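Input record (Table S2, row 215):
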Amino acid sequence: MYIPPPVRADEKYRDLLTVVESRQDIPQEWQGTPIECLIMAQNFGWPIQSTGKPELLIATCIEFRYALPVPRMYSYVIRRASGRVIGSEFSVGYTIAQGVKYLAVIGHNDCGMSQLEAKKAGVIEAFVSQGWPRDAAEQYVAKQATRHAIADELLALKEEYIRLRKIFRQLVVAPLFVCLHDSRFYVPNWVSDPETEKLIGDGSAVDLEIIDGLP
Ligand SMILES: [Zn+2]
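Output record (zinc ion complex):
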């Protein structure tokens, strides 16, 4: 099994991520919330106490090299290829109705969805092996690839973070990046960048155009 090098040594992520080495490194808005507990459990092995009333939803990739550090009764979880939530907005709304206030979106390095072009033929074969006509499998994979493929794991996380903030105006969204080498969370530096807030824009109403464009 291939384990990628640490993101700290990876040129691609240089100056873009901050490792959480203590509670002080956690952005203020997340302190004292289930997001802080998630980070402390992941990076320092702190035990998580389940309240039985989950306020946290975690969205991450289907990646088998990453295991969530949460016990049962602690959070809702959406796991999808690349970790993006697009297409699962209804699930987010449902969990909000159950009391969720925080959404942790976890990206990771060496994501298969960043190499989808190279893996596409194999995915088509997978559908064919399940009885799909080849034409239908090719068309389906081509269509899905535009939604699932990512060029860069951290950039994709940023785009999804901005998209989610525009759709869920009251939810606290925490983008986190997990390094598959050491299984530690890093906080993207663009979280605290005013430019990112500018891209999200203020206001509490969601654009109808965005809602109409949801899959
Ligand atoms: Zn992945």
